[in-house]
């Protein structure tokens, strides 16, 4: 699976009373499908994954999959503290046609999470996971940073294809790139313009929603007086080619996106991209086109919002920014609380130049 470009760290939508608001998640995913982002990540830290029941986690994955265009890469956050529960959710993500799984470091027993335990956890998950595995280190939430030497060893596993590093440390990104450079190259399927080919693009059921409905009714059925059964239109075959990739490293910090790309990252999974996808994509596009002046300018444009909204305010800030920018944010789940009026005014000011 090709993991290049910008990925939105998707939030989970709730009613004010805390119940999941699936229709709003559908609406957000549909709108993300119209952006230039490479894909979306469900049930990461921005998705309040630790706040959801197993049933809610599965429903979030299903709803998001059904509402997403087939050409967008979908990554499922499946991490649980145990190997067996992580694999249960990975199996379900595979059934839905997700492209890879994002596996956060187990951390509740972090004092006992020595290198040996962490290696065993990830190797056991990768050995049995039906989907490619991405490591996920998010020390701001877990108080644990996956050691570089552990990442280097795990990069040799044939089913571990990359990592999301949310340390916000560009020097660490560069060290991770260097440490994983010797990982075996993989041949991945891409389109003729070197975009990712997802499993849903190749599936004959791509145009069929999971609930059994469809989007097309033949004209003859409409005039016959009989009950019309929807039929999916035929999807043209996808023209593909191949590309060689190494261990793919995605940064998790919008304020360090451009320097991380310069250090060797292949893209970013960003909370900022959930409410300002265009602004994030402009940084990546300028970098990919080797326009260093424009890339630096576009990076400066998003840096303060990344620091203040996604970094300091966290999920409440991200959700308010979603509302400001025309998506559905709503409330976080308690014990997280909505922003105060003063905090909202700060977000309003920061968002003035990245509305889209």
List keywords for this structure.
356 residues; alpha/beta; eight-stranded parallel β-barrel; two-stranded antiparallel sheet; 14 helices
Describe how the helices and strands are arranged.
Blueprint: E1 5-9, H1 22-32, E2 39-42, H2 54-67, E3 73-77, H3 83-96, E4 100-104, H4 115-128, E5 133-137, H5 139-142, H6 148-154, E6 160-165, H7 170-179, E7 186-191, H8 199-202, H9 219-223, E8 240-245, E9 248-251, H10 257-263, E10 267-270, H11 272-275, H12 277-288, H13 292-324, H14 341-350
Parallel strand pairs: 1-2, 1-10, 2-3, 3-4, 4-5, 5-6, 6-9, 9-10
Antiparallel strand pairs: 7-8
The succession of helices and strands, N to C, reads EHEHEHEHEHHEHEHHEEHEHHHH
Strand arrangement, major sheet: 1-2-3-4-5-6-9-10
Beta-strand proportion: 5-15%
Overall pLDDT metric:
92
How is the quaternary structure best described?
single chain
Summed up, what is this model?
With 356 residues, the protein is of the alpha/beta class.
Q: Could you characterize what this model shows?
A:
There is one protein chain. Helix 12 runs antiparallel to helix 13 (292-324). The chain has 14 helices and ten strands. It is 42% helix and 14% strand. It has helices at 22-32, 54-67, 83-96, 115-128, 139-142, 148-154, 170-179, 199-202, 219-223, 257-263, 272-275, 277-288, 292-324, 341-350; strands at 5-9, 39-42, 73-77, 100-104, 133-137, 160-165, 186-191, 240-245, 248-251, 267-270. The chain is globular, with a radius of gyration of 20 Å.
